[in-house]
């Protein structure tokens, strides 16, 4: 292990959208396998990895509600979607010989374990990747909030959020070629400038508990490992 990790325990948040690859819906096994490899690189240098996966590639409560469904029912479907993504991710990890566990905030006996903080920490300490599914278990929350919550609960050194661009910009870099990337931001800057990195609930949670967040590009090979060994990848948000 010639590369030494800067962080001992990380909470990685992957959006559901990332899992569908070039499609608008569903799961692309090729994407999962690539992410499994990247996660395996972290495990390989001794980093403990907790994972929160979104569900936006399958269902989002807000979108279902906009189409006429009751919001809470839509959110329940969204949370169940994250469990499906978690099962697919575990499958990929296990095929790459990376030991992993899925825990769910909603009890689902016979499918996945019910979330228990102390058990999760025990698994992490033993080197297993722990996938925290079903978000926070409550409607009206997002998996970004779930990632921040679990990150704080398991005492992670950092919450790492994978996005489609390599950090936080002053404006949408896809629409504006002159957009400038921030290397570092304070929680208050994110809030004051309404930068929309994560929803307000998530930002307030990490701010209150001084949990650093790093935003990086999922599609950049090696970016995750770089970040964990301490290079200035993406954008760092802290106090
Ligand atoms: N969700 C929820 N409570 C949570 C986390 C998620 O109700 O604590 C629901 C919500 O409907 C959300 C969906 O699950 O739209 C999928 O999660 P999210 O939108 O955060 O996924 P991502 O955008 O990361 O793919």
From TrEMBL:
Catalysed reaction equations from the record: UMP + ATP = UDP + ADP
Record localization: Cytoplasm
Function: Catalyzes the reversible phosphorylation of UMP to UDP.
Gene3D superfamilies to which the protein is assigned, alphabetical: Acetylglutamate kinase-like
Record-listed UMP binding positions: 55, 75, 136-143
UniProt xrefs under Pfam families: AA_kinase
GO MF terms held by the record: ATP binding; UMP kinase activity
EC numbers: 2.7.4.22
Alphabetized UniProt keyword annotations: ATP-binding, Cytoplasm, Kinase, Nucleotide-binding, Pyrimidine biosynthesis, Transferase
Domain Aspartate/glutamate/uridylate kinase, first and last residues per copy: 8-217
InterPro entries: AceGlu_kinase-like_sf, Asp/Glu/Uridylate_kinase, Uridylate_kinase, Uridylate_kinase_bac
Organism whose genome encodes this protein: Larsenimonas rhizosphaerae
One cellular component term from this protein's GO annotations in UniProt: cytosol
Single biological process term from Gene Ontology: 'de novo' CTP biosynthetic process
Pathway: Pyrimidine metabolism; CTP biosynthesis via de novo pathway; UDP from UMP (UMPK route): step 1/1
CDD domains linked: AAK_UMPK-PyrH-Ec
Entries under SUPFAM superfamilies matching the protein: Carbamate kinase-like
Primary localization: cytoplasm
Regulation: Inhibited by UTP.
Sequence similarity: Belongs to the UMP kinase family.
Superkingdom of source: Bacteria
PANTHER family: URIDYLATE KINASE, URIDYLATE KINASE PUMPKIN, CHLOROPLASTIC
Residues reported to bind ATP: 13-16, 56, 60, 163, 169, 172
Gene: pyrH
Quaternary context: Homohexamer.
Protein name per UniProt: Uridylate kinase
């Amino acid at each position: 292990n010639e590369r030494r990790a800067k962080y001992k325990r990380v909470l990685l948040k992957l959006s559901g959208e990332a899992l569908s690859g070039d499609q608008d819906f569903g799961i692309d096994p090729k994407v999962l396998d690539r992410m499994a490899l990247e996660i395996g690189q972290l495990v390989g240098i001794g980093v403990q990895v907790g994972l929160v996966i979104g569900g936006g590639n399958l269902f989002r409560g807000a979108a279902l509600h906009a189409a006429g469904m009751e919001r809470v029912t839509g959110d329940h479907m969204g949370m169940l979607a994250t469990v499906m993504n978690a099962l697919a991710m575990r499958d990929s990890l296990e095929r790459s010989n990376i030991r992993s566990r899925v825990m769910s905030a909603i009890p689902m006996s016979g499918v996945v374990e019910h979330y228990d903080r102390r058990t999760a920490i025990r698994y992490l300490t033993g080197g297993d990747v722990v996938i925290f599914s079903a978000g926070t278990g409550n409607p009206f929350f997002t998996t970004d909030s779930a990632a921040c919550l679990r990150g704080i609960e398991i005492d992670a050194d950092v919450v790492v959020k994978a996005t489609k661009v390599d950090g936080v910009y002053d404006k949408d870099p896809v629409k504006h070629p002159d957009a400038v990337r921030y290397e570092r931001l304070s929680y208050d800057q994110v809030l004051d400038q309404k930068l929309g990195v994560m929803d307000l609930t998530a930002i307030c949670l990490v701010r209150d508990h001084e949990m650093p967040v790093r935003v990086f590009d999922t599609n950049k090979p090696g970016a995750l490992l770089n970040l964990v060994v301490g290079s200035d990848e993406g954008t760092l948000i802290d106090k």
